Amino acid sequence: MSLRTALSSSQAHEVQKQFARMLVAPAMLVLLLVAVFPLIYLILVSFQGITMMDNSSDFVGFINYQAILEDTRLWQALWHTMVFLAIALPLELVLGLLMAQLFLDQLPGRQIMVGLLVLPVVISPIVAGAIWSLMFDNRYGPINQVLGWMVGHDMPLLWTIKPELVYPAILVAEVWQWTPFMFLLLLAALANVDKSQLESASIDGAGYWRIFFRIVLPSIWPVMAIALLIRLLDLFRLFDIVWTLTQGGPGTMTETLSIFTYSQGFKQFETSYTAAVALVIVVFLSAILMWALKRVELSR
Amino acid sequence: MKFRFDRLKLSCATAIASALLLSAGMANAQSAAQKAVDAAKKMCNGKTITIVWEAGLQSLDPKNFSGPMWEKLTSCKINVVEVPTAEMFTKIMQEFRAGTGAYDALNVIPSWMPDLVQAGALEPLDAMVDKYTYRDELQKIAPTYRDNQMKVNGKIYGFPDDGDVFIMYYRKDIFADPALRKDFKAKYNYELAAPTTWKQFSEIGQFLTDKLKAKGTYGASQFREPGYGNFMFQERFRNEGGKFFDANMKATINGPEGVKVLTDWRNENKFMPPGVEKFGFVENLATFVKGESAMTISWPPYGRFAAGYIKDEAMKWVPESKVAGKVGYALPPGGHPELAAGFALSVASNSKNKELAYLFIQWLNSEEISMQRVQLPYTLRDPFRDSHFTSKEYLAKWPDAKDYLAALQAGSKTGLLDLSLIQTDKYEEALRQGISRLWAGDDPKAILDDVAKSWDDTTKKVGLDKQKAVYSAWAAKGGAYPK
Amino acid sequence: MNRLPLAHRLRQHLRLLLAILITLFFLFPVYWLAMNSFKTADEIYASPPVWWPASLQLNNYWVLFKDGDAVSVWNSLVVATGSTVLAMSLGTLCAYSLARFKTGGDHLSNWIISQRMVPPIAVVFPIFLLYVFLGWVDTYIGMILLYTAFNLPYVIWMMRGYIQDIPRSLEEAALVDGCTHWEVFWKVVLPMCKGGLFATAIFTFIFAWNEFLFALVLTRTEVTTYTVQVTHYFGGQSNFWTKIAAMSVLGTLPVFIAVVFMQRYLVRGISLGAVKG
Q1: How does strand B416-417 pair with strand B338-339?
Q2: Residues B215, B293: contact at Cβ < 8 Å?
Q3: ipTM attached to this prediction
Q4: Residue C74 C-alpha, separation from nearest chain B C-alpha, in angstroms
Q5: Are strands B48-54 and B77-83 parallel, antiparallel or unpaired?
C-alpha cells in the first residue's frame, strides 16, 4: 500500500509540509551564510564614519544617508544606469525572442549554431569590453574599416571618446553579450509550448499574432518574466563592459551606479558611505520588486 | 728591557688596532646584499615571504630571476602575489584593514605612500636600515628618487626601486635629414633639433607632419588617454609655471597655465595620428617603433624596446622595431620630466615576518642585485642608481645606450614628482575625467574650473589644515616644482 | 495546397540564411578575439587591421601551459562546476517546494530574489572579513560556496518558472498511483523540465565562470580564476593581447563543447512540422 493512502488526510498534509520544508532547508542555509553577516555589517558601518583615513567605529548618525541626498554625481550615475537599462533590456528581449522563434524549428546545423551563439555570454565581460574596445579602435579595429567600405570614404569615428558615440558603443557591446542569454532561455520556454494547442488554433484559422499573444506569450511568460527580472537586476549593476570601454567617461557621462560605487568604495575606501549607498540601492530595488510582483502574476 | 717591553706593547697595540680597523673595514666592505643574505639565512627556518608585485611582465623578475636566486642563497621561500596594477592599492588596503597579515613585502607607487602611511599599513624602516647598515647604499640612489620617494614625515617607508621618468624620444635620422633641416631653418629661423620648449614642439610637429604624412609618418604622437594623460598634464602644467594649490590650499589648476596646456593639447592633436585621443602606452609604442611618429614622450622602456636588441620570448608582445639605431633621446620640453608613477619596495606593517621581508627588499634594492635586475631583458624596472647610469654592461647593450642612459640620468636630476596628498586618487580622478571631457569637446576653462572645484571639495572633506600640511611637505621637496 | 511545398522550402531557406547571418554577427567579435591569439604584435597593431593572421601557430597556447597560467582555467572549471552542481541541486529542490507547496509564501521567494539585488561591491569586504575568520580565503571551498550562494536565487526562480510550466495532473496521477513525493520529483518532474534544467545550469555555470570581483578579492595565488588571470595581462606598461586572446579561447572551449553536446535536451520534441502554416 502506498504511503499516501495509508495515512489520514491531515497526516499526509503534515508529511507533505515536512517534505516541502526539507527541500528548502539546504538552500536557505547556504544563502543565510553569505547574506546575514554582510547585511548586518553594512547596516552598522553605514552609521559609522569609516573612510580611508579614519578607521574608528564611532557612530555618526545619518551623515552618510544625508550625503546621499546631496550627491549629484550619485544621482547622475543612477540616471545613466536607467538609460542603459531602458534601452538594452527591451532590445535584448525582442532580439532574443525573434532569434528563439527563428531557431525553434529544425534547421540543418542548428545544434552547432546554438552552441556558437552562447559564446558571447561565456566570454568574461572584461575581455568582451576589451575586445570591443579594440574593435571600435580607430586605427586597429575593423568597425571603422567596414563602415568606411560601406560609405566609400574614411570614417574615423572615436566610439569610446565622443559623447554622441559612447552610448551606442556601450549598448552594442552589452546587447551583443547578453542577447544570447535571453535567446537560450526563451528557446527552452518556446519549446515547451503545448503543440496541440498551437495546432488547433492554427486549424481554427487564427492569425500569427493572435496565436502569439493568446497562446504562446502566456505560456512562456513565467520564464520570460524571470529572465527579464534577472537581466534587469544585472543591468542595474552594469560595470565591466562600461569600465573597459570608457571608464565611465567622457567625464562622468557613462558612469553607472556600479562604477561610481567601485571608485568610491574600492579605490577611495569611503567604506561607510558606500555601505549606505548599497543599503539604499537594496531597499530601492526591493520596493520596485514588490510593486512589480504585485502587479504581475508570476505563479499559477 | 723596559724599552723592548714598551716597543712590544706598542707593536701589539698597533697590531690589534690594525686588526680591528681591518675587520671593521671588511665588515663595511661587505655589501648590503651579502649582509641581507647572511642574516636571512640564519632567520629563515623554511619560512615563506609573500610579496605583492604588479601582475604580468613586471612579475617575471621575482618569479623567474630574483625569487629563485634568493631561495638558492638563503633557503627562504618567496611567494609572489601578482595583482593587476589597477587593483594593487585596493588589495593592499583591504588585506591591511582585515588584519590578515597575508603580505610581508610590498611594491607601492610612491604617490600612494601618504595614504598608506596615514592608514598605518607601512612599516617604518629606519631601525632596520641602521641595523643592517644600508644607509650608505641608499644614498647612492639617484637624487630625485632618493630624496623624494623614500620618506614620509621624515621616516623611511620604502626603497625607490624603479627609475620611472618621462623622456623624449625622437627620430634623429629625420632630424638629421639635410633637406628637412634646410626647409625648417628657412621657415622658422632656428635649427631643427629636439624641442626645448613646447612652442618648438608644436612647430616641429606641424612641420614634420606636413612633410612626411604622405609617407605615413606624423610629426609626433603622445599619451592622450586620461590615465596616462594625467601624468603628462602634471608635467607640462608645472613646466609652464603652474602651481597646483596656492598658499591657502585653494586649487589653482584652472589658472592660465592649465588652460594653456589643454588648449595646446587640442591644437597639437591636429598634426598627430587620427585617434591619438585614445593612445595609451602600447598604442603610442606601436606607433613610434613602427616609424609612424617622429617624436614622443614616454617612460624608459620605450628606449629599450625601440632599440630592438631584446630577443626574449617574453617580449613578443612588442611590435618589431623599425627604428632601431634611429632614435635620439632628450629631456622633454621644459627640461623637467615627470617621474611618473615609479615603484618602491616596502614592508607591510602587520606582516608576521617583518625583518625577513625587510632583508629581502634590502637585497633586491642593493647595488649588486638591482644592477642585475634593471638589465634583465624583460624588465620594466628602469635604472635608478647612479651606478646604473654608468654601468659598462648596460652601455654595451646597443650603440646609442650611452645617450639613453645620459638622458635618464639628466631626468633623474631635474625630474618632477607626481602630486602626492591624502586621497591622491580623488584628485587624480577629477583630472582624468577632465581630460576625457577635453577629448569629448568641452571648453578647457570650464573643464578646469570643475576640476578645481572638485579638488577644493575633496580638500574640504579631508580637512583643509591636514591636507595643507601634507601638501606643504610635498611642495617643499626638491622635485615638487621646477627651480 | 500545391504551392505549399515551394513556399515552405523558400521559407526554410530564408530561415537558414537568416540563422547563419545572425550567428556570424554574434560570432564576429569572438572570431576577432580568437584571431588575436595567433597574431604577432605587428599584426595586432596594424592599421588597417589584419583580418587573418599570417600563421596559425599554437605557440601562444603552449606558453600558457608552460608558464602555469592555464591552471587558472582549471581553477575556474572546478569552482564553476562545483558551485553549479551544488546550486542546481539545492536550488531545484527548493524551487519545487516553492512551486508546488508555496513554502514560505511570497515572503520567502521575495527574500530569495532580493539576494541578487545586493551590489557585490558593497558586500565584498564584509564577506572577505567573514572568510578571513573562517579561514576560507583563497580556497576552493570558499569560492564554491560563495558562488553557490550567489547563484541560488537565479536557479530557484528559473526552475520555479519551468516547474510551474508542467501540468500538475501528471504529478497528481503519480501520487495516486502510489509514488512517494521523492519519486514524483525524480521520476515525473525532473525529466519533464530537462530543457529548463539545462538552460538554467548553463547560465549558472556562466555566471560563476565570469565572476570577477569576488575572485579578485577572495583569492591570492591558490585559486586564481581565469577572469582574474586575464586581467593580469593588462598592464600599465604592457598588454599581452595574445595571452588575453588565447586564455579567453581556452576559457570558452569547455562551455562551448558542453552546450553543443547537450543542446538536444534544450528543445523537447522533434517538430511535427512547422508551427505556423
Answers
A1: parallel
A2: no
A3: 0.85
A4: 18
A5: parallel
Which positions ≥6 away from B83 have C-beta within 8 Å?
A: B52, B53, B54, B55, B91
Chain A nearest C-alpha distance from B112 (Å): 11
Q: What is the pTM of this model?
A: 0.89
Give the mutation candidate from B103, B112, B282 for the C interface (greatest C CB count, under 10 A): B282
Which of B26, B80, B72, B27 lies closest to B49, judged by CA?
Answer: B80
As a whole number of Å, the end-to-end CA separation of chain C is 11
CB contact C13 to A (< 8 Å): no
Domain boundaries, chain C: 4-60, 68-232
Range of the domain at B375: 32-160+344-380
Q: How far apart are CA B127 and CA A260, in angstroms?
A: 41
Cβ partners under 8 Å of residue C265, min gap 6? C194, C195, C197, C198
* Cross-chain CB nearest to C237 (options B79, B286, B301): B301
Looking at the domain assignment, is residue B85 inside a domain?
A: yes
d(CA A107, CA A104): 9
Whether the Cβ atoms of residue B358 and residue B125 lie closer than 8 Å to each other: yes
Where residue B85 sits, what CATH number does that domain have? 3.40.190.10
Q: Give pLDDT tens digits for A13-42.
A: 787 888 888 888 888 888 888 888 888 999
Sequence-distant (6+) residues with CB within 8 A of B338 are: B165, B166, B231, B232, B234, B235, B415, B416, B418
Q: Hey, which residues does B80 pair with through a beta bridge?
A: B51
Q: Inter-chain contact C19–A102, Cβ cutoff 8 Å? A: yes
Which residues in A lie closer than 8 A to residue B422 (C-beta atoms)?
52-53
Contact yes or no for B319 and C45 at CB 8 A: yes
| pLDDT tens digits, one per residue of B210-240 | 999 999 999 999 999 999 999 999 999 999 9
Residue B94 in domain? yes
Which helix H or strand E contains B169, and what residues bound it? strand B167-171
B10-16 mean pLDDT = 61
Q: Give a yes or no: residue B349 inside a domain.
A: yes
Q: Does B97 touch chain C (CB under 8 A)?
A: yes
Cβ separation of A41 and C30 shorter than 8 Å? Answer: no
**Do B136 and B362 touch, CB atoms closer than 8 A?**
no
Looking at domain A71-295, does it have CATH number 1.10.3720.10?
yes
Work out the pLDDT band at B265, boundaries 50, 70, 90: very high
- Whether B211 is in a domain gets the answer no
Question: Pick from B90, B437, B442: which is nearest to A267 by CB?
Answer: B90
Asked whether residue A7 carries a pLDDT value surpassing 60, the answer given is no
Cβ contacts of A254 within 8 Å, gap of 6 or more: A80, A166, A167, A170, A242, A245, A246, A248
Start-to-end CA distance of chain B, whole Å, equals 71
In whole angstroms, give the CA distance from residue C55 to residue C52: 9
Q: Which CATH superfamily is domain C68-232 in?
A: MetI-like (1.10.3720.10)
Which residues are within 8 A (CB) of C31 and not within 5 positions of it... i.e. 6 or more apart?
none
Q: What are phi and psi of A175, to 5 degrees?
A: -65, -40
- For C36, the closest chain B residue by CA position comes to B317
CA of C66, closest CA in chain A: separation in Å? 22
The three three-digit cell numbers of residue A117, written as one number: 551563439
Q: What is the 3-state secondary structure (H, E, C) of B194-259?
A: CCCCHHHHHHHHHHHHHHHHHHCCECCCCCCCHHHHHHHHHHHHHHCCCCCECCCCCECCCCHHHH
- Identify the residue among C4, C8, C90, C151 best suited for mutation to test binding to A, counting A beta carbons within 10 A and taking the highest: C90
The residue type found at B44 is C
Ordered mean pLDDT values, 10 residues apiece, chain C (277 residues):
71 90 93 90 88 86 88 93 94 89 80 81 88 93 94 89 82 85 84 82 88 91 91 86 88 78 55 27
Chain A, 201-220: which have a CB under 8 Å from a chain C CB?
202, 208, 211, 219
Chain C residues inside the 8 Å CB shell of A265: 121-122, 125
